Amino acid sequence: MLRTINTLLAIRTSSAANRFIYYAQMLPLIGRQIPDTVYANLPIKKTVTVIALILNVLWGLFSKLAYTGLFIYLPAAALDRSLPQEDQLQLFLHIFLLLSFVVAGGTTASVLEPKREKYIAVKLMRLSPATYMRTSLSYRYCTYFVYYIPALLLFTSLLGASIMQGLALAIVVTFWRVFCEYMHLKLFEKTGIELIRKTLFVWLMIGLGCAAAYIPLFLNWTPNSSSMLIGLPSVLVIAALGIFAAVRLARYPDYRTAVEVATKRDDPLLDIGRMMTDAKKTSVRSKDSDYDLTTMQADMFKTKEGYAYLNALFFARHRSLITQPVYKRLAIIGGFGVVGTVFVALDSQWGALLSSNLGIILPFLVLILNFLTVGERVCRAIFYNCDLSLLRYSFYRNAANQHFRIRLYRIMGLNLTIASALGVALTLFALAAGAAVNLELLLLWVCLLVLAIFFSVHHLLMYYIFQPYSTELNVKNPIFYILNLLVSSASGISIGVKAPALPFTVGVVVVTLVYLAAAFLLVRRFGHRTFRVK
């Protein structure tokens, strides 16, 4: 196993070192001093590899600290400082239970996850799938436990928990995730279902899990059931389940089938044509009926020319691919709106709380719309079905500013539709709770629509400036990840700041206007150089 771990670390660090050199070459001034021969310079590559290994460890620690601090501790402790420390700890455990146990356990599984490392190790280096998966899972969950210890000890101690309780929480979350890994594998073995590939299920889990996690913050309600996580009986039961799952995973006889399913979708090195076909059959597949434009009015194309015509044709020919995620979100919002309105109307106590605290919802809209908007998905579809071919021509890259504007208006229309539906649902909540049409309700609508514009600009700007998608259907740009992480972190910070409704809305409007102006400027200035195939 040690030899396999060394092989996996060599693959990871070597790949990270190559990316580090590649993006260092893109830096102004410094990048010009780094020649391509550095890739073959063994002493330098060894140094960069050591740096990459250290950064990987530091990133593992930092990511757990950032996740636990921004999305769990900050809402639990900073949103209402008047709460007793014991109640803050209960809220912390409640949010941690929903996000790290329920949502993460149901939506992630390493065995079925397609990874380039898995393809290289099993397909190219001919490692045994069983050896690879046992080693990979062992390394993953050992480091998972180690990385969680500092974060949980720090934040639980700030809320008055003991060191043993913090360690118990790290133990139970690790063993629970091992158990979930085994359950995903057994489900695949019995039914052939890859649960993490079911987009509707994943988003429902994320949406409902986040709503259930944060709803006590709206209702001034402190759940007490979460304390069972750090109780001795719960620790023993979950540890027993985790040990049982670990033993079964170690003895599992048919890893080859699971690995084959995961790697066949990440097979770019031998057959690029088959890779593109498989990709279009999954997340970016269009229906055959979309290419039949006879059912559409021909007048819609008569007045368009150039890039306006090209994009109109693209959105018409891929209408189901573009609109399907929008319809799914509208259906979820509609169901949530009906159920929530009936519930609020029947429960006068919760209705009164909602009607008197409508403004407290606004900071949560940043997080909600970050999940609901479809800009990133549309950009991915545009790249695979349109730009991947056209970006090879200089005239198309030079016109980045033109088609950026056209696509921005399209994506804004989709996201504004989702935001409007959410606004209607929240308005019905408020009216059912007895709230009047007042300034807070108006600010809620302004916030929703402006945030829809912000995330439309953000996703398209990231696409044009960093173009993170490679011909191998992977996202490898670290700056893209970092900036998206900062935007996600802003979602958590906005909840913790607890700003009044009017200043918060003004801040959102100002930031969006500045971001919009900066986006137009950046794409006009740099788009022709950054918008390219990688």
Which structural class do the helices and strands define?
mainly alpha
Number of domains: 2
Topology order in helix (H) and strand (E) letters? HHHHHHHHHHHHHHHHHHHHH
Helix content: over 70%
Which whole number gives the mean pLDDT? Answer: 82
- The number of distinct β-strands equals 0
**What's the Cα radius of gyration?**
25 Å
What about the largest sheet? none
Beta-strand fraction estimate: under 5%
Unreliable stretches, pLDDT < 50, 5 or more residues?
265-277
State the end-to-end distance. 35 Å
Estimate the global geometry from the Cα principal axes.
Answer: globular
The tally of helices reads 21
Structure notes:
The protein has 534 residues and is mostly helical. It folds into two domains: 80-263, no CATH class; 307-530, no CATH class. 76% of the residues lie in helices and 0% in strands. It contains 21 helices and no strands. The protein has helices at residues 2-25, 42-78, 85-107, 116-124, 129-158, 163-191, 199-219, 232-250, 255-263, 272-280, 299-302, 306-317, 319-346, 348-356, 362-372, 375-390, 394-398, 400-432, 439-466, 478-497, 501-530. Helix 18 (400-432) runs antiparallel to helix 21 (501-530) and helix 19 packs parallel to helix 21. The radius of gyration is 25 Å and the shape is globular.
Topology:
Layout: H1 2-25, H2 42-78, H3 85-107, H4 116-124, H5 129-158, H6 163-191, H7 199-219, H8 232-250, H9 255-263, H10 272-280, H11 299-302, H12 306-317, H13 319-346, H14 348-356, H15 362-372, H16 375-390, H17 394-398, H18 400-432, H19 439-466, H20 478-497, H21 501-530
